[in-house]
Amino acid sequence: MAAVGVSKHFGATTALSDVTMRIAPGETHALVGRNGAGKSTLVSLLTGLHRPDGGEIRFGGEPAPPAADRGAWRRRVACVFQRSTIIPTLTVAENLFLNRQSEGGPIRWGALRRRAGQLLEEYGVGVDPGAPAADLGVEQRQLVEIARALSQGARFIILDEPTARLDAAAIDRLFARLRGLAASGVTMLFISHHLQEVYTVCDTVTVLRDARWILTRPVADIGHDDLVAAMTGEAVGLTDVARRPPRDASVPAALRIDGLALDGAYEPLTLEVKAGEIVGVTGSGSSGKVSLAETVGGLRRASAGTVSVGGATVGAGVPAALRAGIGLVPQDRHREGLVPLLSVGENATMPIADRLGPAGMILPGRRRAAAQAAIERYDIRTEGPDAPVASLSGGNAQKVVLARATAREPKVLVLINPTAGVDVRSKESLLGAVRAAADAGTGVLMVSDELDDLRHCDRVLVMFHGRVTTELQAGWSDTEVVAAVEGVSA
Ligand SMILES: Nc1ncnc2c1ncn2[C@@H]1O[C@H](COP(=O)(O)OP(=O)(O)OP(=O)(O)O)[C@@H](O)[C@H]1O
């Protein structure tokens, strides 16, 4: 597979400029770069979703198929996207044979299900072909996507941040599977913001920066700091996390959770987050951590207990949570986070619309200034406040979600995997902004699977099967967290 001198423009934005990347058969090749570097754009060219403005894509020395021949593309390359392409209202079997159910004749449902069963067995995917796809977890959905790609004949698979929503055990299982695929000759392009993963699973790495190719090297020949330097164009390394001074016991609680419970997700839980405190919550996929944060943020209704902010009980629902002073960064920015048709500025300033002009009016100049300040503070790479939010790269969109959650100087900030899809350098500025909010008196509840996020917390609660089983004060070791997440003591 090769991209030779490819360029791509979106309006005035150059997303790729004369990029050449060659991937040898059977190789596992990493593609890394900061948010907005052009990785997803390159994937869209490699999968035939977009055509390059210049240069060409080749497979096995042959020119790429015509754009309209989707079948030919599917036989050459498949992409497991961050956003699943599995259709939840269809069964697993229907998803597997999407676009090719009948091969001409009428659809024979029984035969379809049988073939799906054989296929899942062949690829070692333990999923019922008759189950609705909506019932699948993230891990199972990815496996179904991979099985679908292989069964269509593709021997080149692109994995776009496949670990972003998996817990540690699922990541290990995925990596074991990828090694198996590599051993059987499947070629892979692996995109990740977790450089450790690049070293664990890839042979070769290509770095893009500002739409340009920077380097391609065997991973064994480039150290972590040099890789970060190639991505950022700066020689300076990442900074260590400075310890926060301990909270005074007399500081009032910003957030109090009293006997809060959600049937099937987590058991009654009581917890206080002081003003200025950052409390981390982690755990495996089934620990209940995300449901807990979603209840506090108003996205789910508790089956028992109360949430109070500054001593006042918060009603159910997102509007009540917002009124009470809770800012939320939800898990799925596509579903709950942003309004794609509005501009970056409109999205970032939505919660403060009432402050942007007199009597319900919005003064455009004031909005632009507020939006510009957010763009600078969160290091958002965009043409400007008027660019549609849909034009942002994934990591930059995540920064807009955080800008919005903090726009009203919330009393409480509830963050769910806030740095998902955010590049190594931007993570620093994003977590720095969270700390600045805490220093100004906001109580922060941060649910995360990332040790790098959790390092910024004053203490970390580990949940296991719906209960807090461990509390770790700052200064914990990685093995302590991992052991508690797995439900074994360190
Ligand atoms: N449909 C589009 N319209 C306008 N601009 C776009 C569009 N798609 C991408 N861009 C721009 O092209 C540039 C490259 O974006 P791309 O999504 O390829 O980055 P990325 O490296 O995948 O980033 P991330 O790590 O955040 O996912 C960005 O400046 C982005 O805003």
TrEMBL record:
Sequence ranges assigned to domain ABC transporter in this UniProt record: 1-235, 236-490
Q: Does the keyword Nucleotide-binding apply?
A: yes
Which of UniProt's keywords are assigned here? ATP-binding, Nucleotide-binding, Repeat, Transport
Keyword Electron transport among record annotations = no
Which GO molecular function entries does the Swiss-Prot or TrEMBL record give?
ATP binding
- Family annotation (Pfam families): ABC_tran (PF00005)
The family database entries (SUPFAM superfamilies) matched by this protein are listed as: P-loop containing nucleoside triphosphate hydrolases
Write down the PANTHER family for this protein, in alphabetical order.
Answer: CARBOHYDRATE TRANSPORT ATP-BINDING PROTEIN MG119-RELATED, GALACTOFURANOSE TRANSPORTER ATP-BINDING PROTEIN YTFR
Its name, as the record gives it, is Sugar ABC transporter ATP-binding protein
